[in-house]
């Protein structure tokens, strides 16, 4: 862990994520601390037999891919290259949780064939209601976390988090609004909207490290002030994402700007204490 500058908590989370994706990772034997993906794991055989990789190279590739956070753009670039080389649906299956694999595969099929879909029992984070959504999916966000799609009912492009979709039905209907398909801006806290708000936060070392662990794409917007203080300057789509992070580490974060973020958090706390 020291070699890669990772905390024990981060390593445990990576291993748990790989296990949830369906891979078998036995506990280390003889106390040597070595974790390995078992050869009986799903898809291990397929990737070990790729034309240009030996079994040893494929094993290293697997471990390398899964050691990278889902929000890291380098991981997305690697996956895109693998898609280009092998045009393999299994690539997507290896980086999403097993229970969401069918959702991703159907969305991927609809994107390739330029067809409409129905997202069954989609749970909206805003209303917390289950609703079927008729959409035209056209792109995935980093590492298949969400899907960009044109929402036919609302007449605009939105992101739909894939883990909130119960199932997907690919319709025998072609896209009708392809000229309106456009990916919007998504901030480092994974919130998307048409507005952008400048935010500056002064972070302690602890807050900085936790921010990079939980939201790796924020790292490019962080600059050191000294050895123990850091400044985050970024654009957010709303105060929801950044507000949750600040409230969880309020003793380690100073809001430099905007004042509206302080007002937002104050109201959240007042509503909670009512």
From TrEMBL:
PROSITE patterns: WYL. It holds the Pfam family WCX. Transmembrane segments: none annotated. This is Predicted DNA-binding transcriptional regulator YafY, contains an HTH and WYL domains. Keywords: DNA-binding. It comes from the Bacteria. PANTHER family: PROTEIN PAFC, PTHR34580. It comes from Alkalitalea saponilacus. One of its GO terms (molecular function) is DNA binding. InterPro entries: CBASS_pafABC_assoc_protein, WCX_dom. Residues 196-262 form the WCX domain.
